[in-house]
Amino acid sequence: MPGVSSFLSILPRAARGALAGLLAAFTALAVAELVAAPVRPAAGPVTVVGGAVIDRTPAAVKDFAIRTFGEDDKTVLRLGILTMLAVIAIGLGVLALSHRRAGAAGVLLFGVVGSVAALSRPDSSGIADVLPSVAGALAGALALYVLASQAVSGPARSGVDGEHAGGWSRRGFLGAAGVTAVAAASAGVLGRFLTGRRGQGAVASREGLVLPAPASPAPAVAAGVRLGVPGISPFTTRNADFYRVDTALTVPRVDAGTWRLRIHGQGVDRPRTYTLDRLLARPLIERDITLTCVSNEVGGPYVGTARWLGVRLADLLREAGVRPPSQGGKADQLVARSVDGMTLGSPVEDVMDGRDAMLAVGMNGEPLPFEHGYPVRMLVPGLYGYVSACKWLTDIELTTFDAYDPYWVKRGWARKAPIKTQARIDTPKPFARPAAGPVAVAGVAWAQHRGISRVEVRIDEGPWQDADLAVQDTADTWRQWSYRWQATPGGHTVTARATDGTGAVQTEQRARTIPDGASGRHSVFVTVP
Description:
- There is one protein chain.
- The protein is built from 12 helices and 20 strands.
- By secondary structure, it is an alpha+beta fold.
- It has a 5-stranded mixed β-sheet.
C-alpha cells in the first residue's frame, strides 16, 4: 500500500489523533450494536440517547423539527447525534496523543451517559439495558488507547522505507488502524444480522396473519365520493403514503405471538388480558376513518384516510366493568401505553359515546404495517392522534385527568384535543402559474365526527363562492371539494374555508399547533401569465 504509506508518513499529528478518535468511536458504536442485539436492540446508545434528547426537547422545537423536516425528523436527529459524536471523538483522539488515559476516560464517560439514558427510558427492561453502552465504551476506550500509543511511539528518526518517521510508528499505526476498522466493521455487520434475526419472529407473525372478515363491514366507497380532479388527494390514502409522526427512533417490531394487552385501573371491575388471537376471535368492525396529527399546520400533509379493521374499544371496556363519567364511572381518562413507553390520554366519555373508537388490527385490507402500530393500535375518530391513536399498544389504564398527565401533556400540549375544522387546497399548488381561463381549484376538508356541510372559495378579497362537494362518505372522513375559477392575468390569492356539520364556520384566527392544533384558513398565491 505505497500510496497509503506515503500519505501516513506525512500525516500531521492532529490528523493522526483525529483518525484514532473516529476509529475508536466507530468501534464503540459497532460493539454496542452487537451487544444490543441479544439484550434489546432499542437499548443501543444512539437510540436511547436520541430518545432522551426527544423527551427533553421543548415542544416548540419538536414542532419546528416536524414542520421543517417532516417524517425525516428522526433521520436528522440521528445524523445530528452521530455528527456530534464524531466531533467529540476527534477531540478525544487529539487529546489522547498527549494524555492517553484522559482520552480513554472521555470515551468511558460516554458509556456512563448512554447507561443513564438507557435506564431513564420508559421502556427500559432494567440493568441489562446498560450493557450495550458499557461494552461499547470499553471497546472504544481500548481502541483509542492502542491507536494513540501507535500514533506517537517510535524513535524520532527516518527509518528504512519510512518505517518510523517524526517519532511515531507508521507501520504500527497503519496496522492497528486497519485491524480496528476491520474488527469494528465485523462487529457492526454481525450486530445488524443478529438484530434482523431477532425481528424475524415479528415479520413472520405479520406475514402469516390472516385477518378475519368483519362482522360489520364498511360499505363500498360510493362513486360520488371521488371527484376525479387532477391533483386532488385520493379519498383513500395508501399505506405507503400515510403520514407517520411519532417519537420512535427505531420502529418497534412486535411478535404477535408474544403480544399481550392489559386493561386495568380505576373503575375496572374485571381486569382483562388479551392476546391477538382473542381479539381476532371477537366481532370486528371495518370503518373508513380520517386521522389527523396535531402537528399538522394549516394546509399541512399530516392527515390521511384509511379503511381500518378492529375491535370496538367501548365493548372491551364495558366487559371490564368500565362506565363513562356520565353514567357514574370513576375514571374520566383512558391512558394507552405502547411497547416503547409512550403514553396517550383519551377522554373515557368520548371513547364510549357511540363513535367507532377501536383497537385496529388492519389497515386498507392488510395487517397494520410496523410503522403504523402492528399488531394493534388505538383509534378514536374526532380526536387528534396525540390523545387517541396509540401505536404498538400494550396497556390500557383507566384513571383521571387530575391523577395523571400523559407524555405530551407533560410537555405543554392540551389534555383534550378535538380535531379542528380545516379545508386544504391541493391544487393549484403555491406559486403555480396556471393559464388564464377555467382553473380547477380543489382539495379536501375535514371535521371528524362532525362532518363537512360546506366549502367556500375566495379569490383575493372578493366574495366567498360555494365549491362543489363530493358525496360525504361518513362524518369521520374527509370530503373532497372543487371550484371552477375563471382565472384572469395577474397575481391572485386563493383561500378556502369549510363549515362543519354543526354549522360552525372554520375560523380565520391563526393559531400555532401548540397546544391543541393549528387554526386559520389555507390560502395559496398563484400567478396567471
